[in-house]
Design a protein that fits this description.
heterodimer; A: six-stranded mixed beta sheet; B: mainly beta; seven-stranded mixed beta sheet
Chain lengths: 114, 116
């Protein structure tokens, strides 16, 4: 089955700096890669996603890159703010016509120091 | 608010017992996913249902079972509970079963299960 590794497990940055979280996956059939943000005590929420036919996607301060050959994808947050502090999960999804199965990374706890 | 509801919010029970967690998907969503999140752990995919049928299975124990009803709500049944089953259980829903479009999963608030 799919295996997703996420690094680092914790990340501390100064407000205004950039943060990068990296994930690798094992199943070449994975074709959809969402990123979720989970604030303390709350539900995970999708912040950005990328499909396997796209190499990069950007949404304001957040960007995701995908290297299908190397089977890795990364989340980039620029100009970090204290409210970016949360746990971030990457996932690799194998969507076919019948089912979607998500394999999540173990999460990265991001702390942005004011 | 994602539109996904889960009940109960908290559940405290004893080892060996059986509990049922309930999830109502967003209006119009046909897929329901169940996840387990243990303390300081990531999200473990348990099972997916689409329009009443099981579509994908993850690391779900044999003591756990789920179903999706005609009105599309879903229940996760946990039996012979052990201390290690204490966790936050999330339900998520999405519009389709997969394929195109690559649809977003909307998570419910979770049910916190404590097994004593």
């Amino acid at each position: 089955g799919e295996n997703v590794e996420q690094h680092p497990s914790t990340l501390s940055v100064q407000e205004g700096d950039s943060a990068v979280i990296k994930c690798t996956y094992s199943d070449s059939a994975s074709n959809y890669f969402p990123w979720y943000k989970q604030e303390l005590g709350k539900r995970p929420q999708l912040i950005i996603d990328i499909r396997s036919n796209v190499g990069e996607k950007k949404d304001q301060r957040i960007a995701v890159t995908l290297n299908k050959t190397a089977k890795h994808f990364s989340l980039h947050i620029t100009e970090t703010q204290p409210e970016d502090s949360a746990v971030y999960f990457c996932a690799a999804d194998t969507h076919n016509t019948n089912a979607g199965k998500s394999t999540f990374g173990d999460g990265t706890t991001l702390t942005v120091k004011p | 608010d994602s539109g996904v509801t889960q009940t109960p919010k908290h559940l405290i029970t004893a080892t060996g017992q059986r509990v049922t967690l309930r999830c109502s998907p967003r209006s119009g969503d046909l897929s329901v996913y169940w996840y387990q999140q243990s303390l300081d752990q990531g999200l473990q995919f348990l099972i997916q249902y689409y329009n009443g049928e099981e579509r994908a299975k993850g690391n779900i124990l044999e003591r756990f079972s789920a179903q999706q009803f005609p009105d599309l709500h879903s229940e996760l049944n946990l039996s012979s509970l052990e201390l290690g089953d204490s966790a936050l259980y999330f339900c998520a829903s999405s519009r389709t079963s997969g394929g195109a479009p690559y649809n977003e999963q909307f998570f419910g608030p979770g049910t916190r299960l404590t097994v004593l």
